[in-house]
Amino acid sequence: MTTQPRATFIETDMVSLAGYSLSDLRADQSRELADAVRSVLKQVERPRANLGGSGPPGRAD
Predict the structure, then answer these.
(1) Phi, psi (5° rounding) for residue 7?
(2) Residue 25 and residue 17 in contact, taking contact as beta carbons nearer than 8 Å
(3) In the predicted structure, residue 51 carries a pLDDT above the cut 60
């Protein structure tokens, strides 16, 4: 049996925080980071309803 090669990256709309410390994040005033925070908070407000059922995901976005 052969194994599938692991992806070296995952495509995402989120800003990369690789190499950032918490201090860096607190000091970062960029629009990209602010947009990413808004996107995450929006998803937290409307969490996924799919908890392992056989139906489609419960998200509308």
Answers:
(1) -70, 140
(2) yes
(3) no
Inform me whether the pLDDT recorded for 1 exceeds 60.
Answer: no
25 touches 33 (CB < 8 A) = yes
Distance CA 53, CA 41 (A): 25
Q: Measuring CA to CA, which residue among 31, 39, 47 is closest to residue 14?
A: 39
Pairwise CA distance, residues 5 & 7, whole Å? 6
Whole-number Å distance between alpha carbons of 26 and 6: 33
Nearest-angstrom CA–CA distance, 56 and 49: 10
Pair 32, 13: CB distance under 8 Å: no
